[in-house]
Amino acid sequence: MDRKFYLYISGQKKYTLLAMKRLLGEDQIRKKVGRLAGQISRDFAGREVLLVGILKGAFIFMADLARKQKDAQERVERE
Prior knowledge:
Elements: E1 3-9, E2 12-19, H1 26-43, H2 58-78
Antiparallel strand pairs: 1-2
């Protein structure tokens, strides 16, 4: 069930904000990003990978993915 919140600027209602239900917890997201990074490392082993984030705010996800991908790449190289 979504709840509505309103943002007022100078006494006028400007935006309607929705409080949404959480779909995934922090640990679940971390695990899924790690799995994705591992898959990228295996699929592109020995090749250079360029990560490009398109959506506004994607830099946070891309930074986490790049860190995990680097760790996964090091593991793949050791195997």
